[in-house]
Design brief:
By secondary structure, the chain is of the alpha/beta class. The protein has a domain at 196-390: Type I PLP-dependent aspartate aminotransferase-like (Major domain) (Aspartate Aminotransferase, domain 2), CATH 3.40.640.10. The protein has helices at residues 8-27, 33-54, 60-72, 76-101, 117-128, 149-162, 174-190, 205-224, 240-248, 266-272, 295-305, 317-322, 365-368, 394-430, 456-465, 492-507, 520-527, 531-544; strands at residues 198-202, 230-234, 251-255, 277-283, 309-312, 340-345, 358-362, 373-375, 383-385, 437-438, 446-450, 471-473, 478-482. Helix 14 (394-430) crosses helix 16 (492-507). The chain is globular, with a radius of gyration of 29 Å. It starts with 7 loop residues before the first helix and ends in an 8-residue tail after the last helix. It is a single-pass membrane protein.
Length: 552
């Protein structure tokens, strides 16, 4: 029987260390120095590679799956099939564009002599008449959030006066800069910001979100030394966060939502946070289902781990900001929630300003300063810009300012009441339609529908044939209508409800029938495991928008 080692645990550790040393010496016995150096270097580099391979933001499964499909597409037969299908899709997309614009000729070169005012306005009217949907009649989900002839005339005049101004030159156009500052402050008041809060205008919700992500990436790099950043967001958050991730090399760590509430799973959200997390984000509300994440809970995590928290209120805009004042219950989400450090909100949605204006707002200028881009050593001089653009359209800033001044607080409050009243009216009626269900609990103006009985895209197709243009959803399949001020006009909501009831009743006569036509593509797209192929099809579609139909 062997004697016990002296020294307890310390002695055992010493014996283990001695054993490892002896084994290493035995391994390298009778080897040349260059062999020892080569083996050691190989072992170290292999260990470093293995460590970096395992410790990446993306799981091994996700990376392996992507690599598998990448190699699979290199197989000649597979590649030929994919290229054949992409070619067909490309021709189909171009054919659709040709049909939509078929009544007009394309101008491929500058006219030899400039056109007259009358000729240009005539062409403008002809171009604007193209399309199958009557958005003025309230037949479209979202897209156009409000339209009044008198307001359109006002912003047209305002834009005309400021159309050649550029806030890049504040010494030349100080009045436009003053208007932008006022737009920011008026919006901050709606979102319960204090004197420390600040922000800028942008060209749209995507730029607002992208700017916030850029600010937090740079802030984390400077103050925390984070060089491999990630953000933790719900799976339902806007695609602009993915765009920001691609632009700024920020890994997007998506967290699943509760299948019933369609709100982010907070337990999984907390687990997703790590030492490289530069920002947390939630929606108020999200685009697909119109549900609102638990911003208070996300903000608590932000405070606990000292991580900035962004609230995406681009879709909710002034409606979600004024919902409580209008008498509706919404969960706290704005700057009154401790831990919320930024909010994005679109003035060109429920602010009813012309397209091309949005806001990104911060709780502290220390974050805003990292949104800016400053170049100090350019021969053209010191150059700084607050957003992606250098030159910016002063006309859009002025038009947004004029719209807000024209509406006033009470005007926005009344619009909020109209929109939310109509949204709840539509939601209540649709919940009573046999064969469909409503996703989660809509927080503001989006009402999303699904079905456990039939393919919901059949309903989308049926409503499309009745003149309605709704948004299609995936994972799971669904459709939604985003209620705007256009839908609050007398009879519009009732007409929509009646058309849904009629279409569902017809579908329920044969609920098992598969969807056909263009809508079948949406279901097929979800079933494709290699998402890069869906990406290639999408690029074909975008390219088709710039295609010029041949004369033949």
């Amino acid at each position: 029987m062997k004697p016990f080692a002296v020294g307890g645990a310390g002695g055992g550790s010493l014996e283990c260390s001695k054993l490892i040393t002896e084994n290493i010496n035995r391994l390298f016995a009778n080897r040349e120095p260059w062999q020892v150096a080569t083996i050691t270097t190989t072992a170290v580099l292999s260990s470093v590679w293995l460590w970096s391979f395992i410790n990446q933001d993306e799981s091994i499964y996700t990376r392996g799956k992507r690599q598998f499909f990448r190699y699979l597409k290199k197989v000649p037969a597979v590649r030929r099939k994919i290229e054949s299908e992409l070619s067909k899709a490309n021709q189909d997309f171009k054919g659709e564009i040709a049909k939509l614009t078929g009544t007009l000729e394309y101008c491929l070169q500058l006219p030899e002599n400039g056109l007259s005012k009358e000729e240009i306005l005539k062409l403008m009217d002809e171009h604007l008449k193209l399309g199958h949907y009557d958005w003025r009649d309230g037949r479209v989900s979202g897209a156009v959030y409000g339209y009044k002839e008198d307001l359109a005339e006002l912003v047209t005049q305002v834009y005309g006066k400021a159309s050649y101004t550029n806030p890049l030159h504040p010494d030349i156009f100080p009045g436009v800069c003053k208007m932008e500052a006022e737009v920011v402050k008026m919006a901050l008041a709606l979102f319960q910001g204090d004197e420390q809060c600040c922000g800028t205008m942008t060209t749209g919700g995507t730029e607002s979100i992208v700017m916030a992500c850029k600010a937090y990436r740079d802030y984390a790099r400077e103050h925390k030394g984070i060089t491999q950043p990630n953000m933790v967001v719900p799976k339902t958050i806007h695609a602009a966060f993915d765009k920001a991730g691609q632009y700024f090399n920020i890994h997007v760590n998506y967290v699943d939502v509760d299948p019933k509430t369609l709100e982010v799973d907070m337990k999984a959200f907390k687990k997703a946070i790590n030492k490289n997390t530069i920002m947390l984000a939630g929606s108020a509300p999200n685009f697909p289902y119109g549900t609102m994440d638990d911003i208070e809970a996300i903000a608590e995590l932000g405070l606990k781990y000292d991580i900035p928290v962004h609230v995406d209120a681009c879709l909710g805009s002034f409606v979600v900001a004024l919902a409580r004042t209008a008498g509706y219950r919404v969960k706290p989400f704005n700057f009154s929630v401790k831990g919320v450090t930024s909010i994005s909100a679109d003035t060109h949605k429920y602010g009813f300003a012309p397209k091309g204006s949005s806001l990104v707002l911060y709780s502290d200028v220390k974050y805003l300063n990292h949104q800016y881009t400053v170049t100090t050593d350019w021969p053209g001089g010191v150059y700084g810009s607050p957003t992606v653009n250098g030159s910016r359209a002063g006309g859009i800033i002025a038009a947004c300012w004029a719209t807000m001044m024209n509406f006033g607080f009470n005007g926005y409050l009344e619009a909020t009441k109209r929109i939310l009243d109509t949204s709840r009216y539509v939601e209540t009626a649709l919940r009573k339609v046999d064969g469909i269900f409503i996703f989660g609990k809509p927080a503001t103006s989006v009402v999303a529908m699904g079905s456990n009985v039939f393919d919901i895209f059949r309903l989308s197709d049926a409503l499309c044939k009745k003149g309605w243009n709704l948004n299609t959803l995936q994972f799971p399949s669904g459709i939604h209508i985003c209620i705007t001020d256009m839908h609050t006009a007398p009879g519009v909501a009732d007409r929509f409800i009646a058309d849904v009831r009629e279409a569902v009743a017809e579908i329920m006569k044969d609920p098992g029938q598969p969807v056909s036509g263009k809508m079948a593509l949406y279901g097929m797209a979800q079933a494709i495991p290699d998402r890069s192929i869906v990406g290639e099809v999408t690029r074909c579609y975008i390219n088709s928008m710039y295609s010029i139909p041949s004369k033949k």
